[in-house]
Amino acid sequence: MGVVPKHNTVQMLKKLVPLNLLSGEDLEQLLQTASFNKEKAGTYLFRQGDTDYHNVYLLSGQVALLDKMREVDRITAGSETARFPLAHQIPRKNSVRAIGRVEYVLIDNRKLSELLVRSNDDDYKVADLNAAVTDDWMSQLLQSKVFQQIPAANIQSVIMRMEEVG
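The structure assignment produced for this chain is given below.
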Protein backbone atom coordinates (compact mmCIF):
# COMPACT_ATOMS: atom_id res chain seq x y z
CA MET A 1 0.00 0.00 0.00
CA GLY A 2 1.63 3.29 -1.09
CA VAL A 3 1.80 6.24 1.28
CA VAL A 4 2.82 9.87 1.10
CA PRO A 5 6.23 10.44 2.71
CA LYS A 6 6.32 12.48 5.92
CA HIS A 7 7.86 15.94 6.06
CA ASN A 8 10.98 14.66 7.87
CA THR A 9 11.60 11.88 5.33
CA VAL A 10 14.68 13.45 3.75
CA GLN A 11 16.34 13.85 7.15
CA MET A 12 15.48 10.24 8.01
CA LEU A 13 16.84 8.94 4.70
CA LYS A 14 20.10 10.86 5.12
CA LYS A 15 20.89 8.50 8.01
CA LEU A 16 20.60 5.37 5.86
CA VAL A 17 23.54 3.61 4.21
CA PRO A 18 24.56 4.27 1.42
CA LEU A 19 22.00 7.07 0.99
CA ASN A 20 24.10 9.10 3.45
CA LEU A 21 26.73 9.41 0.70
CA LEU A 22 24.42 11.27 -1.69
CA SER A 23 24.25 15.03 -2.02
CA GLY A 24 20.96 16.66 -1.10
CA GLU A 25 20.18 17.15 -4.79
CA ASP A 26 20.89 13.51 -5.64
CA LEU A 27 18.81 12.32 -2.68
CA GLU A 28 15.88 14.45 -3.84
CA GLN A 29 16.25 12.93 -7.32
CA LEU A 30 16.27 9.43 -5.85
CA LEU A 31 13.11 10.20 -3.86
CA GLN A 32 11.25 10.92 -7.09
CA THR A 33 11.44 7.21 -7.93
CA ALA A 34 11.08 5.88 -4.36
CA SER A 35 7.96 4.08 -3.19
CA PHE A 36 6.82 4.59 0.41
CA ASN A 37 4.63 1.81 1.80
CA LYS A 38 2.73 0.67 4.91
CA GLU A 39 1.90 -2.94 5.68
CA LYS A 40 0.11 -4.77 8.47
CA ALA A 41 1.44 -7.60 10.63
CA GLY A 42 2.10 -10.85 8.78
CA THR A 43 2.63 -9.22 5.38
CA TYR A 44 5.77 -10.17 3.48
CA LEU A 45 7.82 -7.22 2.23
CA PHE A 46 9.58 -9.70 -0.06
CA ARG A 47 10.26 -13.42 -0.20
CA GLN A 48 13.37 -15.56 -0.40
CA GLY A 49 14.40 -15.95 -4.04
CA ASP A 50 12.79 -12.69 -5.26
CA THR A 51 14.77 -10.91 -7.95
CA ASP A 52 13.41 -7.36 -7.76
CA TYR A 53 15.92 -4.52 -7.95
CA HIS A 54 14.97 -2.58 -4.85
CA ASN A 55 16.69 -1.79 -1.61
CA VAL A 56 14.12 -1.98 1.18
CA TYR A 57 14.63 0.28 4.20
CA LEU A 58 12.52 -0.10 7.33
CA LEU A 59 11.23 3.31 8.51
CA SER A 60 8.94 2.25 11.37
CA GLY A 61 7.95 -0.97 13.10
CA GLN A 62 9.68 -4.33 13.30
CA VAL A 63 10.25 -7.15 10.81
CA ALA A 64 11.39 -10.76 10.99
CA LEU A 65 14.20 -11.97 8.74
CA LEU A 66 13.34 -15.53 7.67
CA ASP A 67 15.42 -18.32 6.17
CA LYS A 68 13.22 -21.11 4.78
CA MET A 69 10.33 -19.85 6.95
CA ARG A 70 12.47 -19.98 10.13
CA GLU A 71 13.08 -16.68 11.91
CA VAL A 72 16.80 -15.88 12.04
CA ASP A 73 16.67 -12.25 13.17
CA ARG A 74 14.39 -9.34 14.06
CA ILE A 75 15.07 -5.83 12.86
CA THR A 76 13.55 -2.76 14.49
CA ALA A 77 13.28 0.61 12.74
CA GLY A 78 15.82 3.10 14.07
CA SER A 79 18.34 0.40 15.04
CA GLU A 80 21.87 0.28 13.66
CA THR A 81 20.93 -2.69 11.46
CA ALA A 82 17.92 -0.81 10.05
CA ARG A 83 20.28 1.85 8.65
CA PHE A 84 21.14 -0.71 5.96
CA PRO A 85 18.83 -2.20 3.31
CA LEU A 86 17.01 -5.35 4.42
CA ALA A 87 18.47 -8.58 2.96
CA HIS A 88 19.69 -6.72 -0.10
CA GLN A 89 21.28 -9.63 -2.01
CA ILE A 90 19.66 -10.51 -5.36
CA PRO A 91 18.16 -13.07 -5.58
CA ARG A 92 16.93 -12.55 -2.02
CA LYS A 93 18.57 -14.93 0.43
CA ASN A 94 15.90 -14.27 3.06
CA SER A 95 12.24 -13.39 3.33
CA VAL A 96 11.15 -10.39 5.39
CA ARG A 97 7.78 -10.37 7.18
CA ALA A 98 6.18 -7.55 9.17
CA ILE A 99 5.81 -8.38 12.86
CA GLY A 100 3.45 -5.46 13.46
CA ARG A 101 2.41 -2.48 11.37
CA VAL A 102 5.45 -1.25 9.40
CA GLU A 103 6.42 1.58 7.11
CA TYR A 104 9.21 1.13 4.60
CA VAL A 105 10.64 2.63 1.44
CA LEU A 106 11.63 0.88 -1.79
CA ILE A 107 14.67 2.42 -3.49
CA ASP A 108 15.62 1.35 -7.02
CA ASN A 109 19.15 0.04 -6.46
CA ARG A 110 20.10 0.61 -10.11
CA LYS A 111 19.21 4.31 -9.80
CA LEU A 112 21.03 4.48 -6.47
CA SER A 113 24.17 2.93 -7.97
CA GLU A 114 24.01 5.37 -10.87
CA LEU A 115 23.78 8.35 -8.50
CA LEU A 116 26.60 7.06 -6.30
CA VAL A 117 28.91 6.62 -9.29
CA ARG A 118 27.95 9.99 -10.72
CA SER A 119 28.57 11.79 -7.45
CA ASN A 120 32.35 11.28 -7.88
CA ASP A 121 32.61 10.98 -4.13
CA ASP A 122 35.35 8.36 -3.88
CA ASP A 123 35.81 8.80 -0.15
CA TYR A 124 33.41 6.77 1.95
CA LYS A 125 31.93 9.00 4.63
CA VAL A 126 30.64 7.71 7.89
CA ALA A 127 27.75 10.00 8.82
CA ASP A 128 25.70 10.56 11.91
CA LEU A 129 27.99 8.79 14.37
CA ASN A 130 28.12 9.76 18.00
CA ALA A 131 31.65 11.15 18.27
CA ALA A 132 31.38 11.56 22.03
CA VAL A 133 31.42 7.79 22.57
CA THR A 134 35.01 6.71 22.02
CA ASP A 135 34.50 3.10 23.09
CA ASP A 136 31.80 2.49 20.47
CA TRP A 137 33.32 -0.42 18.55
CA MET A 138 30.89 -0.01 15.63
CA SER A 139 31.91 3.61 15.08
CA GLN A 140 35.59 2.77 15.28
CA LEU A 141 35.13 -0.10 12.85
CA LEU A 142 33.19 2.00 10.32
CA GLN A 143 35.83 4.74 10.52
CA SER A 144 38.75 2.37 9.94
CA LYS A 145 40.64 2.56 6.65
CA VAL A 146 39.83 -1.09 5.90
CA PHE A 147 36.07 -0.51 6.13
CA GLN A 148 36.32 2.65 4.08
CA GLN A 149 37.50 0.47 1.18
CA ILE A 150 34.36 -1.72 1.31
CA PRO A 151 31.50 -0.56 -0.93
CA ALA A 152 28.78 0.89 1.28
CA ALA A 153 26.19 -1.53 -0.05
CA ASN A 154 28.28 -4.50 1.18
CA ILE A 155 28.91 -3.33 4.74
CA GLN A 156 25.66 -4.81 6.13
CA SER A 157 26.61 -8.21 4.76
CA VAL A 158 30.04 -8.01 6.40
CA ILE A 159 28.62 -6.90 9.76
CA MET A 160 25.91 -9.58 9.75
CA ARG A 161 28.57 -12.28 9.32
CA MET A 162 30.58 -11.15 12.36
CA GLU A 163 30.58 -13.38 15.41
CA GLU A 164 31.35 -12.52 19.01
CA VAL A 165 34.61 -14.02 20.25
CA GLY A 166 34.29 -15.10 23.86
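Interim note for the steering committee: DSSP finds six helices and seven strands in the chain. The beta strands are 35-39, 44-46, 54-60, 62-67, 70-76, 95-98, 102-108.
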